[in-house]
Amino acid sequence: KKYHVIRYDLRGYGISSSQTEDYQFMHVEDLVTLMDSLHIKKAHIVGLSFGGSLSLLICWRISQTGCYRLF
């Protein structure tokens, strides 16, 4: 099988822009928007520490049909 790895900075971390919205955390919506714009219907979601918590929220948000595996 052929896999593609996509890694991105969470908003406000790394070299990404700071959050300017009234909402403190838009990370889940950011990833869902990224996946939609790249036409990704299913994905292996990997996260560690805070990323692990976000992985659970992302899988809940996109339902069981979009979260193929959670690591």
Shape: globular
Residue fraction in strands: 5-15%
Low-confidence stretches: none
Treating each run of at least 4 consecutive H or I residues as one helix, how many helices?
2
- Taking the alpha carbons of the first and last residues, their distance comes to 18 Å
Which percent range fits the helix content? 25-40%
Radius of gyration: 12 Å
- Element-level helix/strand string: HEHE
**Strand line-up in the sheet with most strands:** 1-2
Instruction: Report the strand count.
Output: 2
Main pleated sheet: 2 strands, parallel
Give the structural class: alpha+beta
Query: Whole-number average pLDDT?
Result: 77
Descriptive account of the structure:
Helix 2 (50-66) links the parallel strand 1 (43-45) and strand 2 (67-70). A two-stranded parallel sheet has the order 1-2. The protein has helices at residues 27-37, 50-66, and strands spanning 43-45, 67-70. The radius of gyration is 12 Å and the shape is globular. Helix 1 packs across helix 2. With 71 residues, it is an alpha+beta fold. The longest helix has 17 residues, at 50-66.
